[in-house]
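Input for the complex:
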Amino acid sequence: MDGKIDLLKTLSDQSDAIIKHSDATHPEKTWMYRVTQGFWNEVYEARETGRPIILCSPNVPQEMIYAMGAVPLPVDSLPTRLASSERAFRYIDISEQYVPNTVCSINKVNFGTVFSGDLGFVPAAMVYCSLPCDSSRSTYPAMADFLARNYGVPTFVIDTPYRKDDKGYKYIAGNLKRAYYFLLDVLHKEHDPEALAHFLRNSNRTEELMCLIGDMRKAVPCPQGGRLLVLNGMVTCCMGSQYMLDYVEKQYVETKKLYDAGKSVLKSGVERYRVLWMQNMMWNYGSILDWMEREFDACSVLNGFPFLGREQIEDVYDDEQIWMGLAKRSMGSPMVHSVCGPGEAYTEGIEHIMQDFTIDVGIFGGHVGCKHAWAAGRMVTDIVEKKYGKPVLTYDLDSGDIRYKSQQEVKDTIYDFFDTLAARGYEPGLERMKASK
Amino acid sequence: MVNDSNAESYLSPFSCSFCRGCFEHFLDGTYDFLNGFIASDGCLQPQRVYDNWKNYLKREDDFCYQFNTPRVYDEAALGMYRQELADLKHAVERWANYVTNDKLIEAIKVYNETRRLLRELYALRKGDAPLVTGEECLRITLASMSMRKDTFNELLSAFLEEARQREPITDYRARLMLIGSSCDSPEYLKIFEDKGGLFVTDVNCYGSRYLYDDVEIDEKDPLAGIARSYLARPVCGRMCNLHHELRDTILEMAKEYNVEGVVYTKMKNCDMWGGESFFLDDAIRDAGLSLLILEREEITANAGQVGIRAEAFVEMIETGGAD
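Predicted:
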């Protein structure tokens, strides 16, 4: 295909370059990018050394793949990495030969990267879940079929129930366990309880720290900013890995420092607005979150599909606890826990955030491909606006395709919104400060 | 045909217009006669119709139930599905009447009779000189969905007798098949039939995919019979491991009904049928069938444009032109 590139090498090199640049300009922030470096370097090195790579969807527990000595590559990690780049266009265009343009750009990029051959390897297997959404369900089976027909890649679908209850957890637990044994068979491995326990301990600690970080985000002022809400998406890509644990440990330490000191993450130290992003985070325009912090002293406290830490697996050798625990985590993955089930999950999640996180402003920056989230948009914006009386900004963008709406257009929309709030004298942060004095 | 502008303010313009149309009927009171809503996660957008209804419109006494349908077909999914059916049965029993196995089996028999009659209706379209149009057939299957089945069976039996005495349709120019996103608009089919095409079969939720193949009667466990029959039925791309079965169903029906051209409609924002092209387009063309892919909305506001495409497609088939 025209325009073919070595995508894994490019992303691996790019993540090294980010570290180098950060070391030179903002060394205090370099730790944030080490997780992406660790991930892309590992995938690239796996390909170069012949270590098996398992293509998967994000809510497939990565611990079980690491435990077999293989490397997981959740396909969704590619579009989020490419979201701000023109490189995504090639994959979206390839994809749109087969799927309509209304399919989520994340899935279109997934599809395109696999079809283009730019990954440069044949995965040992593909394992994917039947959620989070219709877009993924229209592209993952096609990718699996393509790989099976052209390269004989074995595939397994983990059916993910819509309802989130004990019956659903048991069902997916059984499916996860079958997926695990399917992979063992494909990789000619035996079940290694020690190896699995090691990665589960890592993920337990990661989840525990994420819970603690999530709790600290409730504090006023908020000790962490919006950039990490975007970067924390990596937890669905490499859960159980050492570099993920290192990243979260460092995040915990940095957050706790400010939390203990009662300080805001904002440079100005004054938190005028606490923002809730009610839909996906803007994968392509993460820098807008930094700009909002600088321009309006607006801190992005949380998002509507948050990663706040999930179930602990107390006994990492107990079969039932392992699979039920991983089942609950899979069902508790960002997006799956909120918008990929009955609407109550989404509305109740927003309710909890409104109750616990002292939110001043809601922004429904709706990714156009996330149609089922849009179709629940009024329910959640009504909670913020009508029940809690907080202003809400709603606009559309394509978080994976910068051709849809430019960064400047999005910034202009947000600027007008905060400008209006200020003009109307809406200053919740300043009022909180006055009240505390 | 529904003006869905009120529903759009709930479901957004980025949703499926069929679902918006459904919700509009809840908003405008058309469905006020209903006493409840059972939702099944066919795809995620109709779910939001249910969610918005429950959030904004549900009355205190309305029955509401969320049914969970697996997205793969295998033994584990069958077990889950059967359990879901049992849970639904119990919920209905708590709300209304006790559902015995005998009653279930009796209902399956009545529905199977509907299926048999609908297959007879479809059979009237198989020969070179069909007796019913696609538009007419769709009107009948739509009626079957909103009537008591025993009443419908009587009416359809009478219709079949009458239809067999009709003058056959011989002036058509191309035998067509409708596939794709839910199409409950007979007017849409009429656009093609006015241009000389004739729909002789379909793979449409409101056509053959509704009630076609019999449900197995399992005397000991009727729910298990229902589960096996319904879950294995290829309906649309929602089932992750039945894409090949759906493709084969389309090709087999096309062969059985001597189809020349397939009209594949994709509702805007329907990811399930939208993405099915990967599995279908080449297979349809390789089978020697002409293929027309059209994006559509629930409101057929572009009938003139569709008519031009339809006319060209019919002419292409008639003249043996390349797809």
